[in-house]
Specification:
alpha+beta, Pnp Oxidase, Chain A, eight-stranded antiparallel sheet, 6 helices
Length: about 180
């Protein structure tokens, strides 16, 4: 399907809904060695006058290593039919197998980043890391720390400047918004 360039935050509201409903696919790495990870946490906003997509990744994840190496990522908003892929990419580590290849996910070169995009997804954000920060255990309310970090594996938040957003012409009708 042909992708069209849209305003950088043109599908921000819909992306937020999909993150909460099903999750999105965060891709890190290069065209030669990429990994897709399901994320359910993310924010789109502004930082230093730039549109950013903020993603949370634990240091124990394979994606973390690839993000640290490349400083780039793509966020790919799935279609309604991609539930099984999201479940799989959320359960299996990229250290153990090539999830993109195993699930037969198509990849294409990004326009502004070396990290691949997933053209079968409804919307894709290309991002370059402009800042990162670690979640500090002492700054989290105790009940939240116990709920989300029982093993002390605190996220690093990556702020990726959104360099490009592309979508299918009928992207909204493809997204799992309910």
């Amino acid at each position: 399907m042909t992708k069209i360039e849209i305003p950088l935050t043109g599908y921000a509201h819909e992306t937020f809904k999909v993150l909460g409903n099903m999750g999105c696919l965060l891709v890190s790495g290069t065209m030669e060695k990429a990994n897709a990870m399901t994320i359910g946490w993310g924010l789109i906003g502004m930082l230093w006058g730039k549109p950013v997509f903020m993603v949370a990744v634990r240091p124990s994840r394979h994606t973390f290593k690839l993000l640290e190496e490349t400083g780039e990522f793509t966020v790919n908003v799935p279609t309604k039919e991609m539930g099984e892929v999201l479940g799989y990419c959320g359960r299996i580590s990229g250290r153990d197998e090539d999830k993109i290849k195993t699930r037969g996910l198509a990849t294409e070169e990004g326009k502004f980043v070396n990290t691949p995009i997933l053209p079968d997804c409804a919307v894709t954000y290309e991002c370059r890391v402009i800042f990162k920060t670690e979640i500090l255990s002492e700054k989290i309310p105790e009940d939240e720390a116990q709920k989300w970090y029982p093993n002390g594996d605190y996220h690093t938040i990556y702020f990726g400047e959104i360099l490009s957003t592309v979508a299918d012409q009928d992207a909204e009708s493809q997204m799992p918004l309910e």
